[in-house]
Write a structure and sequence with these properties.
The complex is a heterotrimer of chains A (676), B (309) and C (137). Chain A has 676 residues and is of the alpha+beta class. Chain A has a five-stranded antiparallel sheet with strand order 4-16-17-18-19, with no helix packed on it. A four-stranded antiparallel sheet of chain A has the order 3-2-1-20, with no helix packed on it. A four-stranded antiparallel sheet of chain A has the order 5-6-7-8, with no helix packed on it. The radius of gyration of chain A is 34 Å and the shape is flat. Chain A starts with a helix and ends in a 6-residue tail after the last strand. Chain B folds into two domains: 213 residues, Rossmann fold, CATH 3.40.50.300; 84 residues, Alpha-Beta Plaits (2-Layer Sandwich). In chain B, the strands form three sheets. Chain B has a six-stranded mixed sheet with strand order 6-7-8-3-9-10, with helices on both faces. A five-stranded mixed sheet of chain B has the order 14-11-13-12-15. In chain B, α4 packs antiparallel against α5 and α5 packs parallel to α6. By secondary structure, chain C is mostly helical. Chain C has two domains: 64 residues, Arc Repressor Mutant, subunit A (Orthogonal Bundle); 42 residues, no CATH class. Helix content of chain C is 52%, strand content 7%. Chain C has five helices and three strands. A three-stranded antiparallel sheet of chain C has the order 1-3-2. In chain C, a hairpin with a 3-residue loop joins β2 and β3. Chain C is elongated. The two termini of chain C are 30 Å apart. In chain C, 21% of the residues are buried. The chains are: A alpha+beta (676), B alpha/beta (309), C mainly alpha (137). At the A-B interface, α1, α3 and β23 of A face β1, β2, α2, β10 and α8 of B.
């Protein structure tokens, strides 16, 4: 087998070198553009897209790597199997004293080594460059390697899919490539699953399926017959994914392009808005498909414009809206494992130093020119010395001081203003009890829309137990109890125009958390408090959550009806909805065709039932798979009973008679070997 | 007999689409012989050999090679079989020496002397790349690679195809050299009947996917006979003759070619009362062409020919 | 070795018959004498590029006729011609050829006298094979 590995390594090395070259150039280009982004960030102002600063987490680099690994993997696999495309060269490979499994193993080991060389080596060099001090001005931790590791691994399913495409001796050329659709799945999921192990698991499962299908193809020379059961099963799974994907994409495209003029996509979206006097209104936007906006009060009366006497238009209405600030406590692990936001956020770019708040709560600085770590800003402990208490990783909602050099940061109990020029922290607010800070923002701007004279500078923050408004010196303007920071993570404050001492000057909104609300059947209301003078609650209200409604266009619904019935049911829970019924009917029809095909070709009852059940569960995708995979034997009329019988069976299915020997025409010359 | 048969098939059949390429093949190839597998193009020879080599799954029927079922050839059996395809395909980027090194690593028994001998006999330089070799040189290389592991059984699919006469002669010489060991068997297909005549002990003939003959070479030549009957007048109508292949009628003569020529056939022909009856011996090639050629009666009467436009 | 064998394929005569014929002719013409040995089966097969079984068959036929003798370990040798064929059988083999010869001569308009003279001349040219003697009967 070693000889086989060496041969394949030599035979395919050109592809690997080419891939190495292309990938290295791609990575180098992205790396250099990351450096350019750094320069722009530092010279400009603001915090822009910081994820490019750490190449390992740069979205463009990750996307490029994903494309490259997929294309390189597929090219390697396909070319490797096309090397023996000629029937006699395949015979030369197979006819030697090794098992087909060993040949499969030798080829795949060689191919995967080349893949690691072409795709892995550039990534390793990139990692080395990142780790070398003085190259990257951003925090590093080993978990940041996981995104590229996951993407690198997604090339392996593509490699096997490429091998399978090159090996299959299929009737329709298109069906050779259906395995590629299955390989697409891990590539897509890497960017959408929250954790690394999930991406890894999915990739591993797909690799096992495609790898087994390739192994089966080696056993039978690319044909369906003569394969071991596991190989056949894996092939069926791979083809089903392919047929399903192709069918669904093709149907969706067809329906949306051809039937689009008749589609009736519409939606209704409503939300609550508060005017400066504290009154609540419901604003509804309909697209039917023309967009129209309707503003009503809470009793359902249409709001009229006093100037025109007709319906209040949105533009006019917006002049009266109250100004506000909106903050949300960050829930754990909202970011996926390949988002840079999971690891750090860029807090400031002062004096050519980049300050990052990393996920361990450290505020560290990196010099933009030397690109080296220069130190951290630490909060001070009670005794005045530098404490190691971590800062909270909370979103940056802005400071009341719009200077880019000063930002708000908080530990669990103390809210600081960090000055990045002087590199000092000033405590602005402290909690004294066992409460914890949840979210905060500063607001600096006009108190009322359109009125530039009345400027407001304040700090708005939520803790686990309270919601507070502080002025620019840190003195409390009001503090109210929090109904529950886990159930209501999102809080909004509106600034109201108090006409006299009794009208409220602030309103505080509490929005329920979506997932919990979903589980409770959307019963959690939006809770609103109006704050009157003296920091007291003047009024409170509970409003039902307004949910948008969307009518999907019927071309899309039709395409979705091609999904297998169980999938469609999970998606549209109403069992008797017309689309569900249609989905089932299509599946039943396909199953009927499958059964008819099986009987027509005199399959055994067990095989016929198996396929029918399979097609019933998987709908039209299952039928397509059946047509792709199953090789029906030819049929001939039986000389005895005259019915059609399969040619691959010794005895006729109907009359049990064997095939007749060839007809003699009188010219036969048969003689045993001469005995001497 | 079974222990002596290195290849045995019973009812071996292969369908491509709806048509049989090989139909109900019953074959026994004894050990130690040189077996020629003959037939016209497209009669099923390559398919049969590919099935025997385990590269094509039979539609139905059984076959065994060196005692092992052809549907499940083990590596140990494959080590004892040498297989040569008609296209002489190899990896174009390898050199002659690298081909030898590659192949030798797979076989426990590799005779480097044979490899060098055959490549030398065909005039191959060790550093020459396969893609630069001519067809004959490639055939020589393939032969060297196949013979160096000293296999017990050689399966050769039209090994002389496209070879120039010198290369073909070298091929035949190699085949005869192989018969030095009495337990070596060669099973080959060919269109070069002169080579077949030199080298084969037995032959089998496939006619449109059906086996029509399987016998020693001399038996075939003895069985296919051409008889010339001279008549004083016009030749009479030909009665039904078992095994009739062709009949040619001229003014005074009837030339009949038939397989299975025996006493019965002689009697029937004598009953036509010819003036003269002479048996014309046929060479192997002529016998083969008559056997597989167009069947039936042809007239070559001059008056009729002249009448045609 | 005084005799070179040559065969050609595609002829009406099977190869083994060609070899046997050539051996017989060589003995008849005196180029091979009793005691001369012929090449071994394998050597001749490889020289003529034919299957050894073919050569073996030719040799077997010659042995059966009494022309050749196999001595274990030493190969095949021409023997003293022992008459395996009876006179009658010999005439049966010879007669068709005489008929052919005379018939041909007639067609070519040779006279009997010319034919007889030519016959005597030829006989004079052919040497009597060594050891082949009518007195051995």
């Amino acid at each position: 087998m070693k000889a086989l590995i060496e041969k394949d390594l030599r035979e395919n090395q050109k592809v690997a070198w080419l891939g190495l070259l292309i990938f290295s150039l791609l990575l180098l280009a992205t790396y250099l553009s990351g450096i350019a982004t750094l320069t722009h960030l530092v010279e400009g102002s603001g915090t822009g897209d910081f994820s490019a600063l750490q190449p390992l987490l740069s979205p463009s680099l990750l996307a490029e790597a994903a494309y490259f690994c997929a294309i390189f993997g597929v090219a390697l696999g396909w070319l490797q199997s096309r090397n023996e495309a000629h029937r006699d060269l395949w015979a030369f490979l197979i006819h030697r004293p090794v098992t087909r499994t060993e040949i499969f193993r030798g080829k795949t080991i060689a191919g995967l080594c080349l893949y690691v060389f072409g795709a892995g080596l550039p990534l390793a060099v990139l990692l080395a460059a990142v780790r070398w001090p003085g190259h990257i001005a951003a925090p590093f931790e080993w978990a940041m390697v996981l995104p590229l590791a996951a993407i690198f691994l997604t090339g392996v399913p593509w490699y096997f899919a490429g091998l399978l495409t090159g090996l299959r001796q299929a009737r329709w050329y298109a069906s050779r490539g259906f395995g590629l659709v299955l390989a697409l799945l891990p590539s897509l999921c890497v960017f959408n699953v929250p954790e690394f192990w999930q991406a890894l698991l999915l990739t591993a499962v797909v690799v096992v399926i495609l790898g087994t299908a390739v192994w089966g193809a080696y056993q039978s020379g690319g044909y369906d017959r003569g394969q071991p059961v596991s190989g056949r099963l894996a092939l069926i799974i791979a083809m089903t994914a392919g047929c399903g994907g192709a069918l669904f994409a093709g149907a969706g495209l067809l329906f949306n392009l051809v039937l689009e003029p008749w589609s009736d996509l519409s939606y209704v979206v409503s939300n609550y808005q508060m005017t400066q006097d504290g009154s609540l209104y419901k604003v509804t936007q309909r697209a039917n498909p023309q967009v129209s906006v309707e503003i009503v009060d809470l009793d359902g009366h249409l709001l009229l414009d006093p100037k025109t006497g007709r319906k209040m238009e949105r533009e006019e209405f917006q002049k009266h809206l109250a100004v506000g600030a909106n903050i949300a406590a960050k829930l754990d692990n909202q970011d996926r494992f390949l988002n840079a936001e999971r690891f750090f956020a860029l807090w400031s770019t002062t004096d050519k130093t980049l300050w990052y708040l990393d996920r361990h709560g450290k505020l560290g600085g990196y010099d933009a020119r030397t690109r080296k770590y220069t130190g951290s800003l630490n909060p001070q402990g009670h005794d005045g010395s530098s404490s190691t208490e971590p800062f909270l990783r909370l979103p940056d909602y802005g400071n009341y001081d719009n200077s880019p050099d000063r930002k708000l940061v908080a530990t669990a109990r103390i809210l600081y203003q960090a000055d990045f020029k002087t590199r000092a922290l000033k405590a602005v607010f402290s909690l004294t009890n066992d409460d914890q800070i949840c979210a905060f923002c500063g607001y600096a701007g006009p108190r009322f829309r359109g009125d530039e004279n009345d400027q407001l500078k304040s700090l708005f923050l939520t803790t686990q137990k309270t919601v507070r408004l502080l002025d620019s010196e840190g003195r409390s303007v009001f503090a109210v109890p929090h109904p529950g920071s886990v159930e209501y993570p999102q809080v909004q404050i509106s600034f109201l125009r108090a006409t006299n001492d009794s009208t409220p000057s602030f309103a505080v909104w509490f929005f329920p958390e979506e997932e919990r609300n979903l589980k409770s059947g959307w019963k959690m209301p939006i809770h609103i408090l109006w704050m009157g003078p003296g920091q007291t609650v003047a009024k409170s209200a509970d409003l039902p959550v307004l949910r948008p409604s969307v009518n999907t266009s019927w071309p899309n619904e039709l395409a979705l009806a091609l999904l297998p019935p169980p999938a469609h049911l999970a998606f549209d829970k109403n069992v008797y909805s017309p689309w569900n019924v249609l989905s089932f009917v299509l599946a039943a029809l396909s199953a009927g065709i499958a059964w008819w095909l099986a009987r027509r070709h005199n399959s055994s009852v067990a095989a016929g039932l198996g396929w029918t059940l399979f097609v019933l569960l998987l709908g039209m995708a299952g039928l397509l798979t059946l047509l792709c995979v199953q090789e029906w034997p030819a049929r001939e009329p039986c000389p005895n009973c005259k019915k059609l019988r399969a040619v691959d069976r010794e005895l006729c299915e109907h009359c049990q008679s064997p095939f007749p020997p060839p007809e003699k025409n009188g010219t036969e010359i048969f003689a045993p070997p001469a005995t001497e | 007999m079974n222990e002596q048969a290195v290849i045995q098939t019973r009812g071996l059949t292969k369908y491509f689409g709806g048509k049989p390429a090989v139909y109900e093949l019953h074959l026994d190839v004894p050990r130690g012989c040189v077996f020629a597998f003959l037939g016209r193009n497209g009669s099923g020879k390559t398919t049969t050999i590919r099935m025997l080599a385990g590269l094509e799954q039979p539609t139905r029927g059984t076959g065994s090679i060196l005692g092992c079922d052809i549907r499940a050839l083990t590596p140990a059996i494959r080590a004892r079989i040498g297989y040569l395809t008609e296209e002489h395909q190899l990896y174009g980027w390898m050199s002659v020496k690298e081909c030898g090194e590659f192949q030798s690593k797979f076989f426990a028994r590799w005779n480097e002397r044979i490899f060098r001998g055959i490549t030398g006999h065909f005039g191959l330089k060790p550093a020459a790349r396969v893609k630069d070799l001519s067809r004959g040189e490639r055939a020589g290389l393939c032969l060297a690679l196949t013979l160096a592991p000293e296999p017990e059984l050689l399966l050769l699919d039209d090994p002389g195809l496209g070879l120039d006469p010198v290369a073909r002669r070298a091929l035949v010489e190699s085949m005869i050299y192989l018969t030095r060991k009495s337990d070596r068997t060669i099973f080959f297909s060919s269109h070069q009947l002169s080579d077949v005549e030199r080298v084969a002990d037995y032959m089998a003939v496939l006619d449109q996917s059906v086996l029509r003959a399987c016998c020693p070479l001399e038996k075939f030549q003895e069985s296919v006979r051409q008889v010339r009957l001279r008549f004083s007048g016009a030749p009479p109508a030909l009665p039904a003759i078992p095994g009739l292949l062709q009949a040619i009628r001229t003014e005074n003569e009837l030339r009949v070619t038939c397989a299975q020529y025996n006493g019965e056939t002689e009697r029937i022909l004598r009953a036509l009362s010819p003036v003269e009856m002479e048996t014309v011996p046929l060479g192997l090639e002529d016998a083969f062409i008559s056997y597989l050629g167009e069947r039936g009666e042809k007239s070559f009467i001059l008056s009729e020919l002249e009448a045609q436009p | 070795m005084p005799v070179t064998f040559s065969i050609h394929t595609g002829s009406n005569t099977p190869i083994y018959q060609q070899i046997a014929e050539q051996a017989r002719l060589a003995v008849a013409a005196g180029r091979l004498a009793p005691g001369d040995h012929l090449p071994s089966v394998r050597a001749l097969a490889e020289e003529l590029v034919v299957n050894p079984n073919t050569v073996a068959r030719a040799y077997a036929d010659l042995i059966r006729e009494g022309l050749l003798e196999a001595r274990a370990g030493r190969g095949v040798f021409i023997t003293r011609k022992r008459k395996i064929y009876s006179r009658a059988e010999g005439w049966r083999r010879l007669e068709p050829r005489l008929d052919a010869l005379i018939g041909e001569a007639m067609v070519l308009d040779f006279t009997r006298e010319e034919l007889r003279k030519a016959f005597e001349e030829k006989l004079g040219q052919w040497k009597q094979p060594k050891g082949g003697d009518r007195n051995d009967e």
